[in-house]
Structures are given as structure tokens and as C-alpha cells.
């Protein structure tokens, strides 16, 4: 394909970006069926070829879309020939020849991976693999969370059955701080004098404290306190008189 009035493509060919592949190949002419040595440069899905390696502008370009890369049979060159063919009528088949088996395989592989359609399929496949990996990882995380939840639930159930307290409750026992409602004071006459540490789960909530005073509920507690305050007021009034 001759480049006619394609300055943008020429600038792209001359850009400083590294090519996917470059090197010398023999190319069969369209009119002249002989082979000519050309310098080929592959950039994206465009294959440029130059008369000389030092040339600035290419003499031709092949757009690698909708093409097939396959081996070619040529009697007039070594058996390292391959071709770029296109489907449809009126299309041209480009016959190229490398100087070794390794070079031929490298060029055929690079040209096969160059078309946009191939790249699109590769990207789609990578996206599918990433989605599968993400789904697998998410499922693994959910399973691990469910397993940990079952273990914790079982631990709390066993602690509740055995009468053990939550680990945070043990923090109240550390240091000099104690709950003033844990135990009865030495003198049960003073409702505010409590000290010591709980000896049972009921004392932890201060229930045993008031049960020790003969009070079974908070209503009774308030009634008893009201009665004591009333008696204290009467004593004070009697003393002042």
C-alpha cells in the first residue's frame, strides 16, 4: 500500500516511540514479482517498510486488520517465507521472507498479535480472568468471615453456659479502681459505704448489695432511702428543739 498524502501516518512512523519489532525482510513486489530487501518497522497495527534502514519516510504501509498470517511456498527463495493475506476480492497478499527459522517465527508471532481485534480479544479475556479472580477472592473472604463468626458465636455461647464474663469485665478488676456497688460495706447501715470486689455475677450488677439489705427491687430501695431521710430529718428537728 503506497502512502499518498498521509502526513499524520508518516509522522507516526517517524515518532520516537519504540516499535514492537523491526528488521530486514525480503518482500515480493506487486508488479515486479521479484523479491526486494526492505527495512520493516511494526508499530501498533501498522507495518511500515522502507527502502533503506536510514530512510526517514516509509515507502509503504500495511494495515494489519482482518488479515491472516500463514506460511507461504516460494521456490525462488529459502523456505522461510510467510504471507499476509486478506479476505475479499481485490485484496493483495504480501509475501515476505526472513533469513532464518527463528526470525520467521518471531515476525509471524508479532504480526499475528498486532491487529486491533486481537488486542481487543486479549483485553476481554484478561478482564474475564480478573473478574473470576475477584469473585473467587470475594467468596474466600466471605467464607472466612462466616467461619470466624461461627467460632466467636460458639465461644460466647460456651462462656455464657459456664458463667464466664466478657473479657472486658476483667478490666474492672485491674488497678486500684473497683466498682462501689460490688459488695456490701462492713456496716449495712451506711448505704453509701461499699468496697471490695464482686464474688458472683449478681453482685457485678449490684443486685446482691440491695438484697443483703432486704430490698428485692429498685422501688423498695427508693422507699428505704426515703424512710431513712425522713427519720434523719425528724432526728435533726428533735435535736434542734
From TrEMBL:
GO terms for biological process: endosome organization; receptor recycling; retrograde transport, endosome to Golgi. It holds the Pfam family PH. GO terms for cellular component: cytosol; early endosome; recycling endosome; trans-Golgi network. Residues 18-116 form the PH domain. Residues 156-177 are annotated as: Disordered. CDD domains: PH_Ses. PANTHER family: INOSITOL PHOSPHATASE INTERACTING PROTEIN, ISOFORM A, SESQUIPEDALIAN. This is PH domain-containing protein.
